[in-house]
Known about the structure:
The structure holds 2 protein chains of 2 kinds.
Chain A: E1 2-11, E2 14-24, E3 29-33, H1 40-47, E4 55-60, E5 63-64, H2 70-80, E6 81-84, H3 96-106, H4 113-122, H5 138-150, E7 156-160, H6 168-185, E8 188-193, E9 204-207
Parallel strand pairs in A: 3-8, 3-9, 6-7, 7-8
Antiparallel strand pairs in A: 1-2, 1-4, 4-5
Helix pairs in contact in A: 3-5, 4-5, 5-6
Chain B: H1 3-13, H2 15-50, E1 55-58, H3 63-70, E2 81-82, H4 83-90, E3 95-107, E4 110-114, H5 118-122, E5 127-130, E6 138-141, H6 143-149, E7 156-161, E8 169-181, E9 191-194, H7 196-204, H8 212-220, E10 223-224, E11 226-231, H9 235-246, E12 251-253, H10 255-308, H11 313-352, H12 366-390, H13 394-399
Parallel strand pairs in B: 4-9, 6-8
Antiparallel strand pairs in B: 1-11, 1-12, 2-10, 3-4, 3-7, 3-11, 5-8, 6-9, 7-8
Helix pairs in contact in B: 1-11, 2-10, 2-11, 2-12, 10-11, 10-12, 11-12
Amino acid sequence: MIAARELRHRYGTIEVLRLDEWSVAQGERWMVLGASGSGKTTLLHVVAGLIRPSDGEVEVSGESLRKLDGARLDRWRGSTVGIVLQALHLVRHLTVRDNLRLVQYMAHLPQDDTRISDTLAALGVADKAARRPTELSHGERQRVAIARAVVNRPKVLLADEPTANLDDNAAALAIDLLAEQASRYGATLVVATHDARVKSKFRERLELAAP
Amino acid sequence: MNLASLSASYLRARPLNTALSLLLLAMGVATIVLLILVVSQLEERMNQDARGIDLVVGAKGSPMQLILSGIYHLDAPTGNIPLAAAQQLAKHRFIKRAMPLALGDSWKGYRIVGAGHEYPRHYGATPAAGRLWEKPMEAVLGAEVAARTGVDVGGRFVGAHGIGGEGAEHGEMPYTVVGVLSRTGGVLDRLVLTSIESVWHVHEEHQGPADEADRKAMAADREVTVLLVQYASPLAAAMLPRQINSQSELQAASPAFETARLFRIVGVGVEALRAFAIILMIAAGLSVFIALYSALEERRYDLAVMRTLGASPRRLFGLLLTEGLVLALAGTIIGVLLGHAFTSALGLWLQSQQQYPVTGLTWRPEELWLAGAALGVGVLAALLPAWRAYRTDVSRTLAQA
């Protein structure tokens, strides 16, 4: 679950995020909507513990993030949160399998090839394990990026603009894949998007206004 | 996957940069290894060859030349001294032992040395085959000479006048090989030993047939080339050289002093080479630094992603540091192996030139220091890039995408 109260984040004097109250139960699927600059990405980063908000409290999966110090916060993120980034950012010179091994390694989890194969198979890219990201289509890369986000069985799955640059079919498919993967692990899913085509896919929506 | 394999994958992703850094570091390390091996072995062997010889007495000339020709058989002799003067000096109360040597001829570039049996005994050499010389024109080969010429006991050869190997041959006076010495690892391995009388014999024969009176005259004119002297008391070091050098016809040179002077002269070249090698290593460090630092720009997303995957800043720091270390380690290993290979090649060449041999198949403790320094260069070069990786602002980097 996610609980946020009186969240504010500023860069210098510029406020980039304002969220008074947000409560998400474990396993729910949420769309975070809003125009560019409304703080969607910032909110995801706060939930992932990548940013410490200037003000306010956020509790994710039972942990009050403000109370975790740097190294513990990193460890917590590695084992609890899966993130699908807008630009995917797979490590280019590593194979798909090594990209997933990297996730287990960085989270201090055992490196489990069976788990990696299962995860890739569930996303239909098992045959790409030995390829490098540059050899894959965009759709395949997105599946690998989702596999990377879920290989550690996260409790919270975050996706930042996952449908940008996708055609209508691919956009719908991307959201479906995320939802399917989230439910497979009982993870809370939060998708930040300003894509009108997919915003009605989930019932739970958080509308962010530019502060 | 671990820090080392992850670092190595990044190094493989930039093959040219990596190769350049490796090359510079390896060349620097190899040069220093070569210097360490060659200098230490030369010093060791020169000290070994001069052990127990406190003074070399010969004809006037350059004292260093006297040492180089009299002990190491590397240079031309300064000339000859009358046998009578040598014999008289040998009785001096400061002298415990004096070994006269007669030089001047060579065979296939190996010097023929007329000496007494005490000469091989001094170096602990005994015949590995055959026996020592007894009669004139009997010769004993050093281990190296026998191995490289293929001549064994019972073989015959003709000496050539002069030590370069190109002089006129004493065709009518062949030597017979009666023994081969055991390998000493010292100067004896490169020498052909015979009696002093043989050397006289070869040269007197040139003057044609002679009657009894001529023979007597020749005996009175007999000469040796050098006298290797061992002191009877420490006092001798202070008195004897001065006393000999003040006589007009003889010169005394101290091996310890002259070899120290030689190494000071050679040392300038060695220092220059060492400085060059250190510059190479610094260039290698800069190359590692530039490679890592310039790659940071394209790697910042990778680093930010690793943070989202749970990597602590310290881990990113470690990743970059490991990259520098892996590079340095690989460069050091390649460099050390290359250094030994170069030394072996140099040793083979020197051996073919009948010069002081060196070997690449030995290890010196200094190489450990060198390896430590090279690893230090890698770590130092990676420090700033690693610090920047440590400071990666994840959220901002990802928001820029």
